[in-house]
């Protein structure tokens, strides 16, 4: 399992892209997607809502369980991935590409975000 080097990662298994014009993209890692199993439902935060770093902002439901979705940053949700709402299996098949979850205009982030190598060490322990 490889984690893209350009992303940062949370200990709750979310990934975060570098901000482009103040907006970052958020999704869950391949490790999390594999642990969840087949994702069948995604409840994402609403566009225009505010999310807080480290707080829950949605849920992913799989054939095994329901898992909370945490935001690695604080800010305003600018977009959700409607394709994932319509076809939640994208989270499993393309967690770093088409399976992204939402975008946030960042106002603050968690202090403990990890590099790809740090996340790989964390998720394998």
What secondary-structure arrangement, pairings included, does this model have?
Layout: E1 8-9, E2 14-16, E3 23-28, H1 30-36, E4 39-43, E5 50-51, E6 56-62, E7 66-70, E8 73-80, H2 82-86, H3 90-93, E9 102-109, H4 116-123
Antiparallel strand pairs: 1-2, 2-3, 3-9, 4-6, 5-8, 6-7, 8-9
β-sheet strand percentage = 35-45%
Write the element-wise H/E pattern from the N-terminal end onward. Answer: EEEHEEEEEHHEH
Query: How much helix is in the residues?
Result: 10-25%
| Coarse morphology | globular
* Averaged pLDDT: 95
Beta strands, count: 9
CA gyration radius, whole angstroms = 13 Å
Spatial gap, N to C terminus: 14 Å
Number of helices: 4
What is the makeup of the main sheet? 6 strands, antiparallel
Q: pLDDT under 50 segments (min length 5)?
A: none
Q: Structural class, from secondary structure content?
A: alpha+beta
Within the largest sheet, what's the order of strands?
1-2-3-9-8-5
Characteristic terms for this protein:
4 helices, alpha+beta, 125 residues, 3-stranded antiparallel β-sheet
Describe the structure in your own words.
- The protein is α+β, with helices and mostly antiparallel strands and 125 residues long.
- The protein is built from 4 helices and 9 strands; from the N terminus they run βββαβββββααβα.
- It is 19% helix and 37% strand.
- The chain has a 6-stranded antiparallel beta sheet with strand order 1-2-3-9-8-5. Strands 4-6-7 form a 3-stranded antiparallel beta sheet.
- A hairpin with a 3-residue loop joins strand 6 (56-62) and strand 7.
- It is globular.
- The two termini are 14 Å apart.
- 39% of the residues are buried.
């Amino acid at each position: 399992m490889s984690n893209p080097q350009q992303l940062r990662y949370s200990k709750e298994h979310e990934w975060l892209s570098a901000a482009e014009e103040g907006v970052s993209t958020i999704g869950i890692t391949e490790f999390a997607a594999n642990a969840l199993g087949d994702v069948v439902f995604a409840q994402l935060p609403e566009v225009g809502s505010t999310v807080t770093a480290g707080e829950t902002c949605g849920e992913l439901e799989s054939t095994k369980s329901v898992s909370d979705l945490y935001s690695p940053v604080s800010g305003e949700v600018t977009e959700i991935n409607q394709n994932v709402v319509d076809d939640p299996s994208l989270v499993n098949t393309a967690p770093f590409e088409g399976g992204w979850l939402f975008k946030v205009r960042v106002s603050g982030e968690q202090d403990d975000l990890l590099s790809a190598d740090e996340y790989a060490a964390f998720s394998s322990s």
